[in-house]
Amino acid sequence: QTNAPSGGAGHRTSLRGGGPLTTVVLGDGSESNTLWQMVWLNVLEEDTFLRTCGNPAKTAEEDKFPWLAPTRTSEPNSGRETNSEDVHPAQMFWGMPRRIRLSLDDCVKSICDICGALDSNCIRAYRTKNYGVNYTGPWLHPLSPHTRKEGIPVPVHAQPGGVSYRHWLGLVQEDEKRSREPSRIVHHFRENRQKAEDPFRLWVFGYDMDKMKARCWYESTMPLIPLRREIREQYAQNVAAMVLAASQVAANLRACVKKAWFKRPSDVKGDTSFVDSDLWQMTEDGFYTMLNELRSVLEEGNEATQVMKRWHHFLSQKALSIFDGLAWKCPVEDADPKRVVLARLDLMKSNNSRRITVDLLGLPRLSRKEV
Asked: Which domain holds residue 258?
């Protein structure tokens, strides 16, 4: 029900669509962390939750738990849609877009495939029928990051390539350029609950769906760096610059690898996103290390210039390393040493461009002699 994708006529999707990304705040990973602590970290205060989405006036139990009443079916002629004003906010966690009924007629004594327990009433079958609850209109689920399209929140879904720090903007902090915002629980936690001395993590997970087919399951964890309130704005600006610079370096790397491989790279089709993925993967640990360095620098009242310089150098060197490992992996008949050398020089030039060093990272402009 939570991840229900489109599945043919009348088979309704979840209120967040098929395969939504979910973000959950975790503790520091120590053995003392419990399931209860994890759940409680991701519960909003009642008044905040009731203002998020849904109709708080709908207080009947069936408005929270839809299985307690006849299904709000959605047949073409006699059914109805269900929007956020029709139900209590709690139904966001208990939605029932699919009409699934367990079969109790042929229960047997067996070992449960899910928990491994021996039980005398293990269910072996279920029935399903189309035209279940049809959730429509905008919903602001507390555990989903959202993109704003003409002011309307749209849940973010998993995409090929997985989740890494390239998605930091929109998962941990707001991405103004793409109008993407973290989930309400992440925003509320960072603004109101996280103390400067307590380390926490963000767990991101979801299915990458192609209509009704699950292409892949992705999950990742990211540190939620504790910050003093007085440095949060500057810290967010610097981190956004670091992510955008990495994105530009990744684009430069992909373009230059294609230049090394092909005489006419713009005419070549095919998926070369693995080049970008290599860079994101090889620089992820370094990114998180730099985040802690950045926090220390700002807390001491210093500017972030030196951290930005080290980040730029780190990105540039990793990009060159990946380029050197890939540049000669083209078919032998297409290999051209001159083309590879020129592409490498182009990569170095692109990664030292004003766009990255000055406009994004805020580094001082180099003189001709320094260049």
From this structure: 228-360
